[in-house]
Design a protein that fits this description.
The complex is a heterodimer of chains A (113) and B (115).
Chain A lengths: L4 E3 L2 E4 L5 E6 L6 E7 L6 E7 L2 E5 L6 E5 L5 E5 L8 E8 L8 E2 L3 E5 L1
Parallel strand pairs in A: 2-11
Antiparallel strand pairs in A: 1-3, 3-8, 4-5, 4-9, 5-6, 7-8, 9-10, 9-11
Chain B lengths: L8 E5 L4 E6 L8 E7 L6 E6 L2 E4 L4 E4 L5 E6 L8 E8 L17 E6 L1
Classes of the chains: A mainly beta (113), B mainly beta (115).
Chain lengths: 113, 115
């Protein structure tokens, strides 16, 4: 049973560019969340998708957007990249039942230069 | 969202039992308590989750007192490979049609295991 998978694992972008990160949830999970983790900090919640709609959003600007597909996989898009967007981006998946555990992928390392 | 407080860092020798306590005074009735382990440059790894009393799995035990305002993660006989950051989180008690719960991470506890 594959866990949460993310791609790419590492990438380097130039300031002002756009990036798309991808996530496949754990089998049986229908809810996907994205987190940003800066160096030395805990992960910060970006947003959550369920039934192909954004359900909750953290304190992130509109430059951060996402999408969920019918197969529950998800994409995170970041436009107009800033140097401060350099971070580990984590995808987490869960099933929409009380007490269900959230599982994380290994993350995508984004470096903006 | 319930806030958690845990020690910033802990040191332990190999082979010892380590107990990390987390306080969550405003935990909601339906919230669960979940602990994650994170190594540098990797995603958080689920360790254990509980609601009340004691939960044990193959890697750890979780002790939750009756008032649920705190919890203690117990790692038996730690090894060097247990050196990591440990996060305590609360949530997951209920889902609604409009949204679901999000995890609010603190800074975690950096555990250093010494040979």
């Amino acid at each position: 049973d594959a866990g949460v998978t993310q791609s790419p694992t590492h990438l380097i972008k130039t300031r002002g560019q756009q990036v798309t990160l991808r996530c496949s949830p754990k089998s049986g999970h229908d809810t996907v969340s994205w987190y940003q983790q800066a160096l030395g900090q805990g992960p910060q919640f970006i947003f959550q998708y369920y039934e192909e709609e954004e359900r909750q959003r953290g304190n992130f600007p509109d430059r951060f957007s996402g999408h969920q597909f019918p197969n529950y996989s998800s994409e995170l898009n970041v436009n107009a990249l800033l140097l401060g967007d350099s971070a580990l981006y984590l995808c987490a998946s869960s099933a929409r039942v009380r007490g269900n555990t959230i599982y994380f992928g290994e993350g995508s390392w984004l470096t903006v230069v | 969202l319930a806030k958690t407080t845990q020690p910033i860092s802990m040191d332990s020798y190999e082979g010892q039992e380590v107990n990390i306590t987390c306080s969550h005074n405003n935990i909601a009735t339906n919230d669960y308590i979940t602990w994650y382990q994170q190594f540098p440059s990797q995603g958080p790894r689920f360790i254990i989750q509980g609601y009340k009393t004691k939960v044990t799995n193959e890697v750890a035990s979780l002790f939750i007192p009756a008032d649920r305002k705190s919890s203690t993660l117990s790692l038996p006989r730690v090894s060097l490979s247990d050196t990591a950051v440990y996060y305590c989180l609360v949530g997951g008690g209920q889902y609604s049609g409009a949204g679901s719960y999000q995890l609010t991470f603190g800074k975690g506890t950096k555990l250093s295991v010494i040979p």
